[in-house]
Q: What sequence folds into this?
DNA sequence: CTTAACTGCATCATCGCTGTTGCGGTTCAT
DNA sequence: ATGAACCGCAACAGCGATGATGCAGTTAAG
């Protein structure tokens, strides 16, 4: 479970942990093989401080993945996936997720160990995602014969593609609109 | 230019180079930070042999990227992108590219140095890709108001997504059909 | 205020990877 | 068949990253 279970840290220690995780995301996104030294520098912290909080590089990575996955789960939850109308939920969730994903791109694309907290969260998110798609299918927004798992994968791919290169030059809602539109209608001529 | 310009190698040396490049793809795909030792072992070659052919790890990576990019360009070319009917060309190119991309996934997703051979090839491929899409647009297969650069990016994303996980369990034509269908019509209900 | 937690700094040992060189044996080209 | 190219093996030096430790100074919590 990484750091989740440790008893509550002192206020400054908590700040350090956050700074380290944020710095790790920033640095590793640009250079996945970056050293602890570089991460420490970016966090405004001594390298030994990182080793005090995270035993291994591995442990740091896992904590990073867990933290990001929790934020992603929250972003989905905030979109009211199983109460709001499907189209509204999809739009809100997409906009929320885009923001989280642009801030934690590296951590979220990390190959998760099958029995880690992050993996469990991602699995739960995928479950909710398919549930929303199912509701959209019931509302005839998605073809009845469509393979929802493929649709979900396409949706994920569109999310990822929207964030490549110039990350946050457009606002999330504009990007979300384009994603949903592409997902539902593709590139073909409109009716 | 990497290794392209060196005078012709002896037959066994050429075999070694191919074995090394193929092993590098295989090993690095699973573990991007793998050591030269691991690559050498996978290639059935001594580590020093790699250093004889490629000065740096960097040089090896670049040669790998160039080699893969050349194969990809050839796969596109074989689809007759500017003579065959757009839909036919798209299908053929997609099927061809899927095969190359499944064999050289790591090398092709490598961030290319702006002034490398690989980058030039990828740029040329993107140019051809957009040309095909333009012809499809002229044939009313794609909406007249569509942003072709976005369409191309979506197409790339669909290609990538099709190969994740169980790589080659389905034949390329089936996958290609689904990709083109999704690209043109999305997940919405069919007419 | 007093104590315990936390941090920075300097240091140390260790490890694995890299890249090079030399040599003896093997394989290809002509 | 002969020479040049190639390969494996062993050894070496160098480098940077890792992770641990002790100590002195600072900060938060009760």
A:
């Amino acid at each position: 479970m990484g750091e989740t279970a440790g008893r509550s840290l002192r206020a400054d220690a908590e700040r350090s942990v956050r700074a380290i995780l944020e710095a790790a995301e920033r640095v590793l996104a640009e250079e996945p093989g970056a050293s602890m030294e570089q991460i420490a520098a970016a966090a405004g912290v001594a390298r030994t401080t990182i080793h005090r909080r995270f035993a291994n590089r591995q442990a740091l990575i896992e904590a990073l993945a867990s933290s990001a996955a929790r934020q992603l789960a929250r972003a989905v939850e905030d979109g009211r996936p199983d109460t709001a109308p499907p189209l509204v939920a999809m739009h809100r969730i997409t906009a929320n997720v885009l923001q989280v994903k642009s801030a934690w791109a590296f951590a979220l694309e990390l190959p998760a160990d099958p029995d880690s907290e992050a993996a469990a969260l991602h699995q739960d998110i995928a479950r909710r995602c398919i549930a929303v798609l199912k509701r959209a299918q019931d509302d005839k927004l998605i073809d009845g014969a469509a393979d929802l798992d493929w649709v979900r994968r396409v949706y994920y791919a569109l999310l990822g593609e929207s964030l490549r290169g110039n990350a946050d030059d457009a606002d999330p809602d504009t990007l979300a609109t384009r994603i949903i539109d592409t997902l539902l209608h593709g590139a073909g001529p409109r009716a």
In short: Chain B touches chain A through 29 residues (CB under 8 Å). Residues 1-5 of chain B have pLDDT under 50 and may be disordered. Residues 53 and 191 of chain B are 57 Å apart (CA to CA). The two ends of chain B are 51 Å apart (CA to CA).
